[in-house]
């Protein structure tokens, strides 16, 4: 998960891109970058940090031009430390291209070798996005060598070739100097991408509808899976389906946690999806804990709030705020490194003790991944004097690694991996633990857009929509990954140990 945005406008775009990135900050808090283009020149500024820290006035002034793109990064490949892996990425040939990417390639390693040996292209980082850009550049070069670019045909042909070579998830925005802005989505549409316009002729592309609406654009439509859209500098929009068998399988975790509740992705309101999840979760709570044994329902801020409200409403139990969030601490789950995450839960959430004292409380979270939040929160509720602490999760147990751009690289770090619900309950230390079930989750979200063929729910059910992913694949995907915590934490070691464990089990 990252946030991406691209704009073509009759007026300068620097502030518009900045504003859109701020609206997408929840999708990536590790690095941010913007490129604009004026004449034959790109202007780029990127660095580690949140949007507000990365861009100072002098940086903004230098970002000139009426066309540009930007990204907020949540690293899921390569080195979380490296400023060089912040996006956008740039190649000088053909034409001069910059690119931003949300997603994760599952065959980046093979492609990197292929790029070097066959395409004679050098990549200088461990980033899968750099690989993706070079594959695109190579394919564009192939169709245009020695002749001027025929747009949009040559651009669409290159995207078609990219679909043929690249595997995994990719929502992409690229800018070809002097020619226009390109956006495309992988053939399963795993990561979201939408388009909007404003009356002055501005066209904007962004990861979530909130980025469009929050910058006064009118949401127009989602980009279809496999589709490419090319916008010329004068604002003309060309669109083409570039995949052979496109099928919409959006990532269900977007609706559970990643996206903002005020966004609508692929026709589904994220807020309504979370209300529905609360509704189905309520039914499961009833079968485990009699509602008259629960005095109060308390959400674990921020993302679980809609599910918790709906659950409390259905069970007829008071909904109270028991934790206050320090708004200046970012989302803990998307922080790289377990040490940072653990420390941040305590910094981020503090109890209102009177809401717990002598009560049986039902805490609701949207999901339990590593269990970092739940373990701390349950203890905090006990310390505040709760009699019984029950915990309910609006998502099912997260048991499998994610390979499509969510930072869950190894199964061993997932609290639910290889454990029964009772074992997880003991680890977390609550009196009862109630999970959503996979079918219930898919039904709750899927009911909001019946034209969706199915969701990518791989971290819950182990089914990977782009084809089987073996333990070895996961190990090689994690090769070279460096976490932020120690600077040395190499995820491939963890992943290999994990792969061996899985093989032994088999
Ligand atoms: O089991 P864990 O590994 O702790 O991960 C799950 C938790 O992380 C997320 O919260 P986060 O603080 O990132 O964001 P939020 O404020 O949007 O809920 C999510 O909402 C859960 O609370
Ligand atoms: N999660 C993402 O979308 C990140 C994009 C890319 N895989 C990176 O790590 O930089
Ligand atoms: Mg949370």
TrEMBL record:
Pathway: Purine metabolism; IMP biosynthesis via de novo pathway; N(1)-(5-phospho-D-ribosyl)glycinamide from 5-phospho-alpha-D-ribose 1-diphosphate: step 1/2. It comes from Verminephrobacter aporrectodeae subsp. tuberculatae. Keywords: Glutamine amidotransferase, Glycosyltransferase, Magnesium, Metal-binding, Purine biosynthesis, Transferase. Binds 1 Mg(2+) ion per subunit. In the C-terminal section; belongs to the purine/pyrimidine phosphoribosyltransferase family. This is Amidophosphoribosyltransferase. The gene is purF. GO terms for molecular function: amidophosphoribosyltransferase activity. It catalyses: 5-phospho-beta-D-ribosylamine + L-glutamate + diphosphate = 5-phospho-alpha-D-ribose 1-diphosphate + L-glutamine + H2O. It comes from the Bacteria.
